[in-house]
Structure of Triosephosphate isomerase:
Amino acid sequence: MAGTRKPLIAGNWKMNLNHLEAIALVQKIAFALPAKYFEKVDVTVIPPFTDIRSVQTVVDGDKLLLTYGAQDLSEHDSGAYTGEISGAFLAKLGCTFVVVGHSERRTMHGETDEVVLAKTKAALRHGLTPIVCVGEQLDVREAGDHVEYCTQQTSASLAGLSGDELSKVVIAYEPVWAIGTGRVATPDDAQEVCRAIRGNIASVAGDEVASHLRILYGGSVSSKNVAEIVGKPDVDGALVGGASLKADEFATLSAIAAGGPLP
Ligand SMILES: O=C[C@H](O)COP(=O)(O)O
C-alpha cells in the first residue's frame, strides 16, 4: 500500500445475517474499533439488502465512522425490473459503496463484463463508489494467463469510463480459486496482479488517476495474512468474506490494516 492511498477494508457478508444479527455485528465492530483507527483505515460493511436500513439506523444513531454498502445493484434506475434494486434506493439509504461483478454473480448469475460495466455506470450515476471485482479461475492461473486475463477483464468492465469516473472506482482483485477456500494467494501473487491492473488504468487514464486508485485483494483474507497482503505496494486493502462475519476477527484485521495497535 502506497502512502497516498488510505487502506479500505470491506466486509462482504454475502447471504449471511438477518437484520437483527446485522445490528449486533455492527455494534460489536464499532465497539472494538474506536475513532483513532479511522484516521488510518476506512472500514465498511456490505450486508444483504434487507439489513441495510437497520445498519443505517445504527450508524447514524450512534454516529459511527464505519460506512456501509450493498452487494449488487441494477443497471437500471427504475421501472419494471422485478427483484432488482436501484442505485437510487441505495444512495437514499446512505450507502457509500456497492460491490459490482463479484465472481459469485459473474458465475451464478451470468453477469458479463458488459453487465458489470452498466452496473458500474449506474453506481456512479447515483454517487455510489463501485467496488468492481475481477479475478481469474484456477485453470487460467495454472496456465499462467492470470495477469492478462485480469487486465482484460478490468478493461472490459470499465470500458469507456472517463478519468474522472475511474477516479471514483475501487477495484477488487479476487482470484476465484482463493474465495472461501482458505487457499489465499501469496502476497506476491496479489501484488503482481494489482500492479498490472494499476498499470492498465494508467495506460487509459494516466498516472495521476492510477496512483490514487484503490485496488483491494480478496480471497481468504484473515487477521493472520492481512498484514503481509496490504503491505504490498499496490494492494490498498481487502474485500473480506468469511472473516467479516466475526466482530473480533474483522476488527482485528481492520486494526492491522491501520498499522495497529490491536484492539
Ligand atoms: O467478497 C469477498 C470475497 O469473495 C472473499 O471471500 P472469503 O474471504 O470468504 O474468501
